[in-house]
From TrEMBL:
One example GO MF annotation: metal ion binding
Entries under PANTHER family matching the protein: PYRUVATE DECARBOXYLASE (PTHR43452), PYRUVATE DECARBOXYLASE C186.09-RELATED (PTHR43452:SF1)
Family: Belongs to the TPP enzyme family.
Protein name from the UniProt record: Pyruvate decarboxylase
Matches recorded under InterPro entries: PDC/IPDC-like
Annotated keywords: Magnesium, Metal-binding, Thiamine pyrophosphate
Reported cofactor(s): thiamine diphosphate
Superkingdom in the source lineage: Eukaryota
Cellular compartments per GO CC: cytosol
Biological processes annotated in GO: aromatic amino acid family catabolic process to alcohol via Ehrlich pathway
Organism the protein comes from: Zizania palustris (Northern wild rice)
């Protein structure tokens, strides 16, 4: 995605999903989410290259992924 491309957006009546790769896209996505006239849930997915993340963030992501892949607790 070029730096001038807008964030990827998918809008439904109940939610908005934005996908960003740069700081400028993140700023635009936040403005889009905050400027929505209708009340809806907004998701912003930030795509970050593995080399641009800390070791701690990568370890945390692995733990979150493992936790999300477990079956639900039937309480």
């Amino acid at each position: 995605m070029a730096a001038t491309d807008p964030p990827t957006a998918t809008a439904q009546k109940s939610h908005l999903f934005l996908q960003v790769r740069t700081e400028a896209e993140l700023t635009e996505a936040i403005a889009t989410a905050m400027g929505r006239q209708e009340r809806c849930l907004c998701f912003i997915e930030v795509i970050v290259h593995k080399d641009d993340t800390s070791k701690e963030l990568l370890e945390w992501g692995s733990r979150v992924s493992a936790a999300n892949s477990r079956p639900p607790n039937p309480q």
